[in-house]
Amino acid sequence: MPLDTQFVYRLEAALHLYRIHDGIALLAGAQDELGGLHSGTPEAGRILLLYAQWIDAGFGDYRLLLPLLERFPAECRKSLPFSDYVRVRMAGAFADFARGELDAAIETLGAILRIGGDLSDPGLEALAHFWKGRAHRKNGEYEAALQDIVRAHELARDKDRFFAALIEIQHSWLLFQKGETRDAERLLNRAESVLKATDHYVALANIESARGRIVRRSGQYAEALRHFAKAVEIYARRDPNHANLARTLVNSAYVRRLLALQMHRQIDAEARSGRSRARSAGRSAAAQQTAFLRYQEICREAVQELAQARRIYALHAKSDGIGKVSLSLGYLHLDRGEMESAEREAGEAYRIGTEQKDRILMARARILQCAIENAHVEEQTGDAADIGSHANRARQFGEEALMLAHGTQNRRLLAGACIARGTTAANDFFQDWETARAFAAEATGLIGPGDRDQAVEDLAALKSRIVRASGIDDVLRSWSEGFVGSKTFQQVVEEFAEIVIPRVWIRQDRKISRVAASLSISPKKVRRILRNAGYIGSREHLAGEDGSHSEAHSE
Fold first, then answer.
1. With bands split at pLDDT 50, 70 and 90, how would you rate the model's confidence at 538?
2. 5-214 domain in CATH 1.25.40.10?
3. What CA–CA distance (Å, rounded) separates 273 from 540?
């Protein structure tokens, strides 16, 4: 198919009306001609920018543009008509954006907008703002992104209702990040009402995926999975290997991980309390086993989704996407106590983030690495020197996460970094309650009132730990000043033992025999006090006084 005026007109008309199937058919029939595009082709700049827009709409990926852009070197661009020059630079900016060169894309599009008055083309100006806003958003610069997206919408709304609807999807996401969930949902609904008359399946799936993320944050995990599954089905109508489909699979896997965490906590809580053994008429051992098998199944489903996402991202050479896959796998490994695997995936995510200059990915990787090091501290892996090393690495990773998060306008990311740093301050090594309290307070101010997801649970756990420790301090201070209330001396002794013995047990690698020897008391009493304080279950308590049975379980 020749790249003549008729071809360009038909391609532009298909894009304007979002007849995606028709446009892709036109492009597929002109691949040989498009492959030969060069600076001497009539209307070369117009065709090149159209090609970039169609790639953005779902035709292939940015790598199709790269060899064509090489045929428009800087020296030849100067001889192009001004409108073609601008369009070639915009196509180059899109390629930079698509491959993660965000600062370069922002700089180029900013330069184009500064000369926008000479273009006399509101459509081009709207497109430049749209792409620039998305680049700012991906860079974590949400206020700048919002300014560009709002301006793009102002320019497009009266001239191109389909493009205006596409812009509203981006606007919705930015409002969601600001905590304005109702307005975000309203924009998504309005955009869908316009775009459902088209076959722009990528945009329609983006809407469904955005809804999944919104309800996920409110803690509606099953509903989030339904939205993500619907998004995957819609993406597949256009391309079963679309990069955005991979992004949705990562989001879905993350929700499955949260569901698995909830189930695992319930199983652990029942095991610690002994209720599953005591209630023969209730949750039987078989039901407990069924729950555990379901937990394993959810984890497998998450891993399968991440494997599919990794494969798709690799097809598109999307390193940042692969980094997100590694991050999610790292958390799954951490949840299951697979520390080495978790460390490997977290390190890979940080490496990719560094290569891509992706501060958000780098910060998230550091938060995960902080959590891994804190897990080592809590589980007392290694000797005393190892525990100190793990604690100090946790603090280092937490501080780096804070620094990186402060370099963005992502409030949730900063909240996560504050929780990580506060959790480190509150771990068994540092027990720095003032620092932990300060970071918990900062995180509280960053999390929205309607949020009900994992970040809220992590913050609640941190606050609970601080309160328990602060309560202990208050008790000891009161005793030192002679205030014991109506307690007998024996009650004070018993309460003091429940404060001291668990901490000695933690320091002694959770070995009951060591605690008994250190404090010159019987292992049976150590076990009883640990059980009463909620640190071990009844199975350990029923073991003999030699400590052999309980040692196996307490380690």
1. very low
2. yes
3. 11
